[in-house]
Amino acid sequence: MPSPPSRVVAVVVTFNRLDQLKVTVARLLDAARTEGLQRVVVIDNASTDGTAAWLDAQTAAQAADGPLVVHRRATNGGGAAGFETGMRLSAEWFDPDWMLVMDDDARPAPGAITAFHASDRTGAMAWAAAVYFPAGGICDMNRPTLNPFWHRGMVTRTLLGMLRGRGRDGFHLTQHDYDARAYRAVDSGSFVGLFVSRAAIETVGYPDGSLFIYGDDVLYSLAMRQAGGQILFDPAIRFEHDFTTMTDADQRFKPLWKTYYHYRNLLLVYRLASGPWFALVLPLMVAKWTLKVRFHSGERGQYLALLGRAIWHGLIRRTQVDHAQVLEWAEPK
């Protein structure tokens, strides 16, 4: 007798992007009707743009045991706190086999959940989807990665790529991996289209909600790998990410305060990933990040101040920082 399909719960974190959230919720509710998605858990990070009222209307309009479940946080804890909250509540309320995590501007392509159910997924602790922009190109920030410090020869290839301005290609999956029809073992995936198993929760717990944004997914993935778990990339599972924070055209974060979280948490990632190599990696990264001041005409002072704090706080592992303080640091002086 065939085993029943795995129970999958989607976890979506949102803050003040109601137009995007509407598209994502509609796509997920359609998957609940037609593709076997069990529940849609939305974590509202104290949005102020009408999100709460819209979500209330959606839950009121569904049946008593409808798939959409909403939890509103009292404060905005960023995506990191949202994912930790959402995964904890999903485990407590529904005990799913898998949690599918995503931002409010990301959603599974039609058929993605069906593709997940179509194969035996028990061999991995997590599965990473192939994430594309709405126009069709690969979403670079969501490319799964290999840890170059765990694979022979990859450190050299990555460093040489950095000299040519293509360091990411040294340890991120490429177009070839997306075009292939085979699974690919990876060391980390993003919280856009990542299926996290119950075994992962039992083994490494939940993501670190104190990080606010950026890096929580990589640190969580690396923890799974260090615990002996396998993460597999499946190009047949397609996701869409309507991402607009930074573009190749200007090479800067918008708004600027995101710079602090990005570099602080990236330093934490490099420390974990590089292990004994960290003392050699740190000065290279600091130099690279400092040179990016050239992209910040009109705000170079704020950028360097944020970067300095990010590096220091990353080194001392300080993640308990009030977001209002970060916003103040980013203000013009």
UniProtKB/TrEMBL annotation:
It comes from the Bacteria. Residues 11-114 form the Glycosyltransferase 2-like domain. The keyword Zinc does not apply. Pfam families: Glycos_transf_2. Its EC number is 2.4.-.-. One of its GO terms (molecular function) is glycosyltransferase activity. Belongs to the glycosyltransferase 2 family. This is Glycosyltransferase. It comes from Sulfitobacter albidus.
